[in-house]
Amino acid sequence: MRRVVVVGAGHAGFHTAFFLRSKGWTDEIVLIDTDSRVPYQRPPLSKEFLWGKQELEDGVFRPDTYYLDEQIELISGHQVTAIERPAKQLILEGHAPISYDHLVLATGSVARKLSLPGGDLDGVHNLATAGDAAALRSGLASAQNVVVIGGGFIGLESAAMAASAGKRVVVFEAANRLMARAISQPMSEYFEKVHRAAGIDLRIAAGVNAVEGIDGRVRSVVGSDATQVDADLVVVGIGADANEEFAAKSGLATDRGILVDEFLKTTDPNISAIGDCARFPLFAADGSSELVRLESVQNATDQARFVAHQIMENTADPYRAVPWFWTEQFGRKLQIAGLVTGYNRTELESTGPDNFSIHCYHDETLLGTESVNAPRDHMRARKELTARLKQEVNATVIRFRS
Ligand SMILES: Cc1cc2nc3c(=O)[nH]c(=O)nc-3n(C[C@H](O)[C@H](O)[C@H](O)COP(=O)(O)OP(=O)(O)OC[C@H]3O[C@@H](n4cnc5c(N)ncnc54)[C@H](O)[C@@H]3O)c2cc1C
């Protein structure tokens, strides 16, 4: 009897257990998570749950009976603190050590805290877990003046929700455009217009110096230009870092993510790492590759499927996938196929002011397509990018150990 142990029961970890069982793995599966809730999805936390259209129970992957029925041993509420690699066992807080034949690290990422004066006042929220989302939703119910720090996906989804609920919203973004790490300049400009038209006070290329409060509760935010903005609730959406600490302490190679090869194996062949915590070689359609760490449901799920297959069949094909993402703000569903960083020209395909796609090219090579309320364009781009990627499957294989 072999035992696969998965650390982290988020998108990547849950799906590893799910794919193993559904593909016919009959040996042991142990799934461990620090969070004591039934494993749940994160995207609805900043969307349906914040809008009040969903409760936390609606976001679980499967009801708790699933784990018993499928003989997946779910150990919730215990943190893994170390891997004893020679003994192939895990050390947990408050639980006996657990041995493994193959270990999958799916520990996700950790939202950056605001390391500024006042960053720990009551009313200052991060949004990464179900607990965070519940606290934010309840805080928003009575807040009037909301300040969002960070104009990325999570910050802007929260800002859109708060503005739609009638709050006065100010967004500070330190970069010179919105969602700059993930989308093209023209798409940033489109979303800037959408947010401004909805009454959001966007302060772009503007940092924050401090958060001020009275009696331990937030009252205002001081911008880097020394202006003071009233705030009875602050949402911090300034990015996340790979949750790699115990992997690094256990001697696995890490560098802004747990480093894995094209088979998603770490520097220890008995350990895979997937999802938000892993930095892996991503191949583009033109055959070039770069080490990336992606934070998306597609990446977590596709890597889980690959690793489950790899554990069962030891497949010889390396991991290849076209990344895709989505966000929803003010009824605009933005879907992104591919990675658009490095584009040098764009082409617009439009059927209306709020139904269009921007195709991003490097010279003649399509890098990615961003679609607003245009799901067909999105699917077409994914197909095209996938077809081109398949031609590259036999490109140089990168692995730590053969
Ligand atoms: C609010 C929000 C909205 C999002 N919206 C979107 C979206 O619209 N589209 C999209 O594609 N992506 C979205 N994402 C990102 C997406 O949810 C993540 O990329 C995805 O969840 C990654 O899956 P993961 O399993 O790698 O990590 P997670 O889902 O974060 O799971 C990691 C798990 O590991 C556990 N863990 C960590 N360390 C330990 C330890 N030492 N011991 C035990 N357990 C541990 C954690 O408790 C956690 O449950 C969103 C994320 C958030 C937070």
UniProtKB/TrEMBL annotation:
<dbReference type="Pfam" id="PF07992">
    <property type="entry name" value="Pyr_redox_2"/>
</dbReference>
<keyword id="KW-0560">Oxidoreductase</keyword>
<keyword id="KW-0274">FAD</keyword>
<feature type="domain" description="Reductase C-terminal">
    <location>
        <begin position="324"/>
        <end position="390"/>
    </location>
</feature>
<dbReference type="Pfam" id="PF14759">
    <property type="entry name" value="Reductase_C"/>
</dbReference>
<feature type="domain" description="FAD/NAD(P)-binding">
    <location>
        <begin position="3"/>
        <end position="304"/>
    </location>
</feature>
<dbReference type="InterPro" id="IPR050446">
    <property type="entry name" value="FAD-oxidoreductase/Apoptosis"/>
</dbReference>
<keyword id="KW-0285">Flavoprotein</keyword>
<dbReference type="InterPro" id="IPR023753">
    <property type="entry name" value="FAD/NAD-binding_dom"/>
</dbReference>
<dbReference type="InterPro" id="IPR016156">
    <property type="entry name" value="FAD/NAD-linked_Rdtase_dimer_sf"/>
</dbReference>
<dbReference type="InterPro" id="IPR036188">
    <property type="entry name" value="FAD/NAD-bd_sf"/>
</dbReference>
<dbReference type="InterPro" id="IPR028202">
    <property type="entry name" value="Reductase_C"/>
</dbReference>
<protein>
    <submittedName>
        <fullName>FAD-dependent oxidoreductase</fullName>
    </submittedName>
</protein>
